[in-house]
Design brief:
6-stranded mixed β-sheet; 6 strands; RNA polymerase sigma-70 factor; transcription; ECF_Sigma-70_Domain; RNA_pol_sigma_r3/r4-like; RNA_pol_sigma-70_dom
Amino acid sequence: MTGTERAPDAGEDPFVEHRRLLFGTAYRMLGSVADTEDVLQDAWLAWRGVDREEVRNPRAYLVRAVTNLALNRLTSARAVRERYVGPWLPEPLLTSPDVAEDAELADTVSTALLVVLETLAPVERAVFVLREAFAFSHAEIAQVLDRPEPTVRQIAHRARRHVDARRPRYDAGPERHHEVTERFRAACAGGDLNRVMELLAPDVVAWSDGGGKVTAARRPLSGPDHVARWLLGVLAKPTSADTTLEPAVVNAEPGLLITLGGRTLGTMSLGVTQGLVHHVHIQLNPDKLLGVQRAGGPATA
């Protein structure tokens, strides 16, 4: 049993028992709550038609089914993302406290890492997720993907090296991260340009994902002055009047919800190092906010 699974109730269906593992696997592979839920629905429908007596290991069977469904969807999604308008960011997820408190598990669902995982080939991403997030052995992954174990070991090594070379390194613990995020929230809410700039690292970079549906920067923004002025400019627009920034746990990290009248218009995730914000990821695409807008939001990563 992985660290994300709970103890099953007696007689519970294996799909329900392992749903959290299945959701977490598909979400890390796809970066989309909507696509993940579609994959789980397809897997559930297939599972209903299976002769359970023929399945010796339901957990392995279900992980294999979900992984392959996610691989198929990811392969087709890559072509769509090549035509995406502006920077692509993953669909944000409101995560449960136990996920946020597990440092290793939280890291594998962070916005920054999901962005890096987009640069992996689909099979590399599947191997990385199963190995790094859920501690599957190379032999188990080989069975899931129907590939020789030595091949899986090579893929795992290549994927880990690729990710390690590109993933941002943040040194702030949860308390410090929360403190900086709160100070950033207050500075933005108050429209205080100098205070916002003081919290931004000299090499800060901000990405905003509007998907061509709403106004967002088409390219990453760099530097404290550029990032701060753009952020405050967006918040000062008439269309942003009466919006609020609310603290939330987004992808297992302290983050912010941009809300208006109780409706979420966007999310912010901050990468913090040495007390300064080095990365800002802003999700504004309304198509990617449906999960966050639902009451409570999914919390199963």
